[in-house]
Structure prediction request, 371 residues.
Amino acid sequence: MFLIQDLFSLPRLHHVISESVLQSLGESVTSSSCKSTELEQCRDESAALVLKFVAMASILLAGFGGVAIPLAGKSRRFLRPDGDAFTAARAFAAGVILATGFVHMLRDSWEALGDPCLRTYWSAWAKFPFTGFFAMVSALCTLLIDFMATAYYERKEGRGRVERAKVVECGSDEEALLETGIVEVKDVGGEGSHAVQRTHSHSHHRDDVESTVRHVVVSQVLELGIVSHSMIIGLSLGVSQSPCTMRPLIVALSFHQFFEGFALGGCIAQAQFKTLSATIMSCFFALTTPLGVAIGAGIASVFNPYSPGALITEGILDSFSAGILMYMALVDLIAAEFLSKKMHCNFRLQITCYCLLFLGASLMSSLAIWA
Prediction:
């Protein structure tokens, strides 16, 4: 009898435990014993709300402006994807992305996960370098995603080209074959006599496929890393109620968004997406930070950014974003560009790209003074 009563009471016990767990998780985000770093004498909710609208407009324009310049410039002669000017612009963008990962995201993650409040929340927290660990895991996961996505797109693009070649070969005339590059006219006799000789230019097609695929994968993975960080900084600005800290932060984040947009726009332009796809990716990037500000403003009254739950979430997401951007900058942007044959054959381009690489990294690093 008692066993039956105990069995009937288990669902109720489970319900009580679930409610207590959810309540504790909610309290860990909405309340905390950690002190706010904002100056209480500068707290002004009405003035902060006005500044949040200013921030959304400013950051939105900066993001659209940064991502639009490379996309609009690719139709110009001096900013063609295969030109030297575009290569130099990509070097500048690589420096921006590298500094974003190392200087901004790692620092923010280190400050969040190293907050003294977390040591009282969990005594073992300070005994392990979680920031570096999560960044390492993120970089390794990015490598895996990079490899799998590249293999998938190469198979997909390769099959498409083989099928198109077969369609042209079956029942097509000589002129159509020449236009597709499947065949090539070569002199095989004197007095202007020619014959059509089929050539299997697999290496040329393979190089084209690999180049296109790499740019597509790089742009998509890069946007993933940038967007995740953009949402975090938008939320941080949105929940703030201190005009003293918000005013310089708005200016810094506007420049921050412009430079990141320029870097992402260069990768999107190089990937040669269709107009609709490029527009969607650009809008998704430009709207992320203002959307984060709006969400932060909506939950500012109930959300405590200095709670243990909020600090852990922010720190983990920042370290993951840092790992993604550091991998992309070093492997897919800097190494791929500076170790290419095009760079080795042009000494002037080498000097220009190195200077712009350091300039982009320096400018983005200097913004860490304010944001």
In short: The radius of gyration is 27 Å. The chain is about 75% helix and 5% strand. The beta strands are 183-187, 194-198.
